[in-house]
Amino acid sequence: MKYVWLLLFVVSIGNAQENVHFKKEITTDSIHLNLVNTMYGPFEVKIKVNDSLSNKVKVKEYSVLAARDTLQKAISFPLEIVNDTSSMRYTDYAAADLMLGDPNAVHNDDYEYALPYSKGAKYKIVQGFNGSFTHNSVRSRYAIDFNLRVGDTINAAREGIVVRTKDDSKEHGGKEFINKANLITILHDDGTMAAYVHLDYKGVLVKPGDTIKRGQPIGISGLTGFTRGPHLHFVVREGKNVSIPIYFKGYNKKYLKKGKKYKNKNE
Question: Measuring CA to CA, which residue among 172, 185, 178 is closest to residue 222?
């Protein structure tokens, strides 16, 4: 398992920095580290204590941390083992792996999504399910790339709550630019999440915490991140960050195909 050192773990969501961070609580004889989630989506949390301290430290090794919630006493240890509580480094005691999303989320397969652009608009699919270019991993296997142009409007394919946004990038190119993609992530009522990726600079029209309606304009298509040209990368994921195949309204429970154009028939 790959662990991310606690002291350095920060979740970037665009123009602001929202942290999943530890808050220190000192009692008479102990120190407790409460894990605070300031985001609007849940996290899967796995914590490992350094081997040399395993018999001294109490830890909640696994938990699902709900949106805007706090995991009380995620780590607890005797006050006596810390020389200076004001300058303590969490990395001296433990490490953690945190994944955005509820690992128990299961997609409602009966749901039919709206196409993620304006009603009546028609766009071509340039890369579909199992695309050999970039749709070949667990988290992207069932992504769809629509050939929206820079400046085109992106609409919500499903209602939900905005979990994170990013729109401060102007860069695009090869794999080294993968973290430069502007994006929106929306949490659905079944616990799944949809990602809308490659948005324009300052192209996000919503903010974390907003409740979004199906068909609502949420962003502007752009050319950012790991991409050869402008398009909208859209994907829905359930627990464990696994992408899933989905249906769109008006297309008779049939999956969309690469190379074909599809009109948004959302009512």
Answer: 172
CA distance 70 to 127: 40
Task: Return all residues near 118 (Cβ < 8 A) that are at least 6 apart.
Answer: 153, 155, 217, 264
Place of tokens 């400046």: 151
Q: How far is CA 233 from CA 96, 115, 147, 202, 220, in A?
A: 30, 12, 9, 17, 12
Q: What pLDDT score does 19 carry?
A: 63
pTM score, whole prediction: 0.88
The whole-chain average pLDDT of the chain stands at: 88
Structural tokens at position 19: 């942290």
**8-state DSSP, 29:** S
**β-sheet bridge partners, residue 75:** 33, 59
Secondary-structure breakdown of the chain: helix, strand, coil percentages, each rounded to the nearest 5: 10, 45, 50
Please report the DSSP string for 101-159 in residue order: S-TT----TT-EEPPSB-TT-EEEEEE-TT-TTT--STTTTT-EEE-PPTT-EEE-SS-
Token pair for 41? 């989506």
Ramachandran quadrant class, 240 (left: phi over 0; alpha: psi -120 to 50; beta: rest):
left
